[in-house]
Design brief:
By secondary structure, the chain is an alpha+beta fold. Helices cover about 40% and strands about 10% of the residues. α5 crosses α6. It is found in: Endoplasmic reticulum membrane.
Length: about 850
């Protein structure tokens, strides 16, 4: 990561502006100006680097010399001009070198300070916090190589798993929030440090991004410290979560794009290609962490389209040169990210070769590619008398299933459900109506009316005009198991087989039922409803299995079934067999991404701390991450950072709207017009980044939280720094830095106000209540002590019987063993001042005021 200084120059219409004045001023005065405005989208010629201003300058000089053909001319004049030019260039290079060195010192200082702020007490709390349940658990699954399904792409999870593996993680399940890490020696600190490092590096990257866009040191420092002291980013980025790597790659990608933009005057040269392909690499890595990376792709994409449009309109750019520009961007910004994204899934599949708990989300074809999964090799023909496993197509909820438990209401007949695993209760026998015996082997054809008898209970698949237990709608009928011995069924047991489609390789599968190849519907003869299932689960009495109903005029895709396995003793032993086709990488990649998309859309349940996008910019509420032992971690952003950044967004939108109106009215902005293009370009880019990382969430119906706003917050912070640069542009450097320092001190003060809920530190109820600046901030102050001193009182040591203490100490005094440590307490050296509780005897706490007196 670096700043590209090679194109730093003045805006086209500012030939006498800050940069040139800077070069012509004595060194003592140069210290007063620390930056040179560099528009990231200035009107430059891509092939020559010429600007409109320099073009006009050349024309004027050519005309000037044309009017003086006979003027006296001395070679010494040219030598003097070249000398002055060389001297100016040398001074310019010296200024660049000095600025570059100073920036790297600042970056180093920012990084070191960020280490302290972000990694402070990162081992606390020593238990599972919030979504560490999921992403720590996924790391364990990678280590066990068992397939699982998650709604996010795999890169960040694989990085966390790699760190965990190298640190010694071996099987901790991260099952519950608050589960203790220390008891099982989990290397959680190293895993948190990895996430913390990716999060803290965003601080210097923010500085480099603002500086790379041509803004002042003060503006860069403001951006860096706003990122550094945001309490929400701190609380989130020091845990085992996906957001720190996501934000890191988003920030790096933005910086790479800024650096590429600064190479506009040097197209097709080495660094032009480096920054362009680094941007594409960043896009691929970002979207491989979370699909939020698609918003980063949209941000860069809009800027790319804008640049290509300007190139297309430049008459000095030939068609062949334009096509080179277009081709380079297509390869770097489209092909490369797609390749990286697919590569991450290839690594993901390679890392999870074994069958696991995620199998049920995937198709049977996908499951056949996993080691340890039951291989299907079954007769292809289905005849009357065959026992079959019938599987639902649309929901992948599993197999048509019944078990000897009845519905608690409705018909109170035997339950019929979908069950996701292979089980003997999934077998159904296909019979003719009234149990007529077939004439030899008679295959089941399209339009046949059949009954399905449950193989284990002999109940028949049945439906009637009774509402289902969960879907109480008129067009849904209950489906149950009904019947008894010697009962041949009634008309409500009859179903018509309607073939929906067959396999292209097997034309006969469109005419009669074939295992795996034929997709069909079962239509109830009496009520003309179709056997149906959806993702609604039955409650505990239904064992959380999926509801099955009979729907009238339902969606076709949720009434489609197929036979996965069949048994029939009448079929010849050499009958043709069928199995699932094993999927290749591309098919698995497409299927998994579809399942991820569908599952992500299905996350619509409510959460006590979820929130909607409109509440994020004003920080309406946070997220309760962890509570234990009178301590609390509550994700809440720094209010000053959020409100300042949101104000910058609002002001930028208003100013852009005003300028559009003024331009339409032909009104010139004399006081601002000179610098407008420069600030408009960088501010516009950051505003677009904020927009694309924020507004798409309004289109999502899924469960959302405040941490989804963090990438958008980053862009709004960059936008604020541009506004700060503009507002302080007339100040000399020292005054500008003084103003920046005052603002940073204010941000730091607010950060310190919320340290207890950021790091999980002790707090008091009164201080907590004072910190509730908004009534909607729902962190619980009642759980804190009334005074800080209460945190220093030792907690009772809960022991299963005092005999354990006696045995341990006696053994130690006899030299047989080391002193035993219980709950992190040495019961020999520290036991004298601890309240002891005999949990087995349920005694009241006993305070040991003297050292333990034990027989030896």
């Amino acid at each position: 990561m670096t700043i590209d200084y090679s194109s730093h120059s003045s805006p086209p219409d500012r030939m006498d502006s800050l940069y040139y004045k800077h070069l012509q001023q004595p060194a003592s005065h140069q210290e007063k100006q620390d930056h040179v405005p560099v528009p990231i989208g200035d009107d430059v010629a891509y092939t020559t680097g010429a600007t409109t201003a320099t073009d006009n300058f050349r024309k004027r000089n050519n005309n000037h010399y044309a009017r003086r053909p006979n003027s006296d001319y001395d070679d010494s004049d040219l030598d003097l001009a070249n000398h002055k030019t060389d001297k100016l260039r040398a001074r310019k290079d010296a200024v660049k070198k000095q600025s570059r060195t100073r920036d790297w010192y600042i970056v180093l200082a920012l990084t070191l300070w960020a280490f302290y702020i972000r990694l402070y007490k990162i081992s606390q709390p020593p238990s599972v916090v919030f979504d560490e349940v999921h992403f720590g658990g996924f790391a364990t699954k990678y280590i066990k190589t068992r397939f699982f399904m998650d709604v996010h792409p795999p890169l960040a999870k694989m990085l966390i798993a790699l760190v965990g593996k190298l640190a010694g993680l071996d099987g901790f399940d991260f099952k519950d929030i608050g589960k203790d890490y220390l008891e099982e020696n989990v290397p959680y600190v190293i895993m948190r440090v990895f996430c913390g490092l990716t999060g803290l590096l965003v601080v210097p990257i923010a500085y480099l991004t603002v500086r790379g866009a041509g803004h002042s040191i003060a503006a860069g420092l403001v951006a860096a410290f706003m990122v550094l002291y945001d309490n929400g980013l701190i609380a989130n980025n020091r845990l085992i979560l996906l957001d720190p790597p996501l934000l890191f790659f988003t920030a790096v990608t933005t910086l790479m794009w800024i650096n590429f933009h600064n190479q506009k005057r040097k197209p097709f040269q080495f660094w032009w290609y480096v920054w362009l392909f680094m941007t594409g690499l960043g896009l691929g890595l970002t979207v491989s962490c979370k699909w939020v990376g698609l918003f980063t792709i949209a941000t860069i994409g809009i800027s790319t389209v804008k640049g290509l449009w300007e190139l297309w309109g430049n008459t000095r750019i030939s068609t062949s040169v334009f096509l080179r520009h277009f081709g380079a961007r297509a390869v770097a910004l489209i092909a490369l990210p797609v390749f990286i994204y697919m590569l991450m899934f290839q690594i993901h599949f390679h890392s999870l070769p074994n069958s696991g708990e995620g199998d049920g989300f995937m198709s049977p074809e996908f499951q056949q590619t996993l080691d340890g999964h039951t291989s299907i090799n079954t007769p292809i023909d289905i005849a009357y008398g065959s026992r079959v496993f019938i599987r639902h197509v649309a929901t992948r909820g599993g197999y048509l299933h019944s078990h000897p438990h009845n519905y608690p209401a409705g018909s109170k007949q035997q339950q019929v459900t979908l069950y996701p695993h292979r089980d003997d209760n999934n077998w159904w026998t296909i019979r003719k109506v009234n149990d007529e015996e077939p004439n030899g082997i008679e295959y089941v054809k399209h339009g046949d009316i059949v009954t399905l008898q449950h193989a284990d209970s002999n109940k028949r698949l049945h439906s009637h005009e009774i509402r289902p237990p969960m879907t109480d709608l008129e067009y849904h009928n209950e489906v149950s198991g009904y019947g008894f011995d010697d009962f041949k069924g009634d008309t409500n047991d009859q179903w018509r087989v309607e073939i929906i489609s067959g396999d292209k390789s097997d034309p006969e599968s469109k005419e009669r039922l074939k295992t795996i190849h034929t997709k069909f519907a079962l239509v109830h003869v009496m009520s003309q409803c179709s056997l149906f299932s959806h993702t609604v689960k039955l409650p505990e009495w239904g064992f959380d299995q999926q509801e099955v109903t009979c729907i009238k005029n339902g969606k076709i895709e949720k009434t489609v079934w197929y036979v996965e396995s069949t048994e029939n003793s009448q079929l010849p032993k050499d009958a043709e067999k069928v199995t699932y086709n094993k999927l290749g990488f591309l098919s698995k990649f497409i299927e998994l991404n579809k399942v991820m998309w569908d599952t992500n859309k299905g996350l619509t349940s409510t959460h006590p701390y979820d929130s909607r996008p409109e509440s994020w910019p004003l920080l309406r509420r946070g997220i309760n991450f962890w509570s234990k032992d009178k301590l609390h971690i509550y994700l809440l952003g720094n209010p000053l950072v959020y409100w300042s950044a949101s104000t910058a967004v609002l002001v930028c939108i208003i100013l852009k709207s005003v300028f559009v109106i003024l331009d339409k009215r032909g009104i010139a902005q004399k006081d601002f017009g000179e610098l407008r293009k420069f600030y408009d370009e960088s501010a516009g880019f950051f505003l677009v980044g904020w927009f694309f990382h924020y507004f798409p969430f309004f289109l999502m119906g899924r469960q959302l939280f405040l941490h989804h706003y963090m990438p958008a917050l980053y862009f709004s912070i960059l936008l604020f720094s541009v506004g700060f640069d503009l507002l302080t542009i007339k100040l000399v450097n020292r005054k500008r830095l003084a103003v920046a320092a005052l603002f940073v001190l204010a941000v730091n003060y607010v950060y310190r106000c919320f340290i207890p809920i950021t790091y999980g530190e002790p707090w008091t109820q009164s201080l907590c209540e004072k910190a509730k600046w908004r009534s909607t901030w729902d962190f619980d102050c009642a759980q804190y002590h009334h005074d800080i001193e209460s945190y220093h009182i030792p907690k009772p040591l809960i022991i299963e019987g005092f005999g354990k203490v006696k045995d341990a100490v006696s053994s130690y005094l006899g030299g047989a063993a080391a002193p035993e440590v219980i709950d992190g307490v040495n019961i020999v050296s520290d036991g004298s001042n601890l309240p002891l509780v005999d949990k087995s005897a349920q005694d009241a706490p006993i305070t040991a005021t003297q050292p333990l007196q034990l027989e030896t």
